[in-house]
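Protein modeling request. Please complete all fields; requests missing the sequence field cannot be processed.
Requester role: graduate student
Desired output: 3D structure, token encoding
Chains: 1
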Amino acid sequence: MRARPLPVKSTVRVRRPVDIWHKSAFSAVVALAIPDLTLLAVGRLDLVLYTSAGAMCALYAHGLPYAARARALLWVVLGMVASLGIALTAASLITPTVLLVALAAVIAAVHKMVCDATRIGPPGNLIPTFISASAFFVPQHLGQVPLHVALALGTGALAWLVCMAPGLVRPQGPERIATARALEAAAGLLRTDPGNGTTATTAPPAPPAPPAPPAGDVKPANGGTEPVGVAQARHAAAAAVNAAWHTLFLVPAARTPEKASARAGLERLLVRAEAALGNAVLANAASGDLAHRGASGRGGGTGPGGRDAGYDAGAEAGRLTAWARDLRRGRALPQVELSEPQAEELRGVAVAEALAGDPPGGPARTVAGTTAGPRRPAPGRPRGVRAVVARLAPGSPLLPIGVRVAVGCALAGWVSMAVGVGHPYWAVVTAASIYQANTTLSWQRALQRTLGNLLGLLLFTALLPLIHTGQLAMVVLALAFQLGAEACISRNYWLGTVWVTPMALLLTEFGSHLPARTLVVDRWIDTVVGAVVGLACCVAVTNRRAADRIDLALERVAEAEAAAARLLASDPAPGAGEALKDDARESGWARDRLAGALIELREAVEVAAGEWWQRTLPEERIARAEQQGHRTLAGLVRRLSAPALAA
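Delivered output (647 residues):
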């Protein structure tokens, strides 16, 4: 066991914004503006909290294809309305503030665990926790609850319509963005290729991941001979390609030739990104003087490092980047020009995509003369509600996080009460917001939250003369703050919080008018109390299961890699027909399972590496597993070309 230092320098570093920040920003502004302006017209701005509960659901699910987005947003709206209903009912029936704080803490813990289990993405549990925690301390009569809940449900339906509306203009927008990210990540990996004479370079703009915990410092693969930048770029490329495939898995079966052709075009681009990943892995393995069983000699002629003869990593990176740019700008799908070996490989992959023949009720597609149905996810893993329930089962690593949130939020609220704050919901929200996957990230979030709130309070104070000019100015400022928050929060959390803080204060002003001095002082006290108490609980309630998750992930990687290695050791199915299709299907599923296991291992390592108090990680074992797994993954990509060559 050893304690790890907590970082400071990386806490305030500003990054590139998420590539689709404007989608959630403008969706939320539209969904908020319509009810806010309506309430302004009828003189009932005191109801803004309830309409905002539903309208802010427009912040979610913008990375999902529209069919999956419709389902996800429905659950978000229902969850938001249910939380609001519970909070308002408690506020109308329970008088002791101590009990209200305890209930708000429990609801905050439920939000955290459910949002993490569903992997709904940003803004995660923050919005429903803010709304429900506020509602616990709003004066309420039981007879008013149905109307207020109905307002939230109605604006939630409006948010659903706003988020679905872009599908009328760009029905394939989310799939194209996911594919573009995969192409950019693959291009970034190719730029790390030692055979290309370049060093670790990041891909063109892609959504920034949360900062990796700096404390683990898992040794690079190959005993330290592989540059750290290469390992990071390889993981980013594998994760982006895997995410893009799973985005396509969420798209319903195409029922027209045009939709089938568009789906096929995106799949071809992903296959190209996957092939680039395989070539880069083999080149980097060769640069470290590493041999990989079965990873070369299966996909046409190979050159140095086991790659295709004549393969130019720099030129391929440029092509992938250009295709990604076309996808993002809504242009026609790129017409990919292929060399003969590449065409043979893609024809083989097209056979691999024939997992179940023609999609139900839809046409088959043709790629280079080979008929195939769309690629489908590997069987055997729960999806949907079953997957969420499995992630929350006893022994889940999410349970210690839930305990942290419940204990920390309750203590923060009670301490806030003890120092004289009349409505301690902001301390509860602050404590809930800082809890991340591990102690390191929670420490960073606490510093960011405190800094952002302080600057936000200064901004609110500076704008008080404008705020006091009238309610129209308050509505316009609230919408502007919402836009600014979404534009900045992906650059760094503290920068987004600068805008979130005055917006939250304005929501309070709509319902009840407090002296500005009291409002600012109470909010500052709640912020400090929530951050300090929440972080103390985070350090005290350490997640000892984080290292156990690594052991489980290593076992899954070993099982998937062994199954893939056995498949690589066997000869590809000769000829054509069902045997060929079965062989290709098994190769595709083995690839999916191994890619998912490797990504899960890397996530588990980053979580455990950021725990302040944790047993020493099996760094050499992790490095070997990742190294061998990625090379085997490259071999599977090549194996998928073998049926076409044999035929």
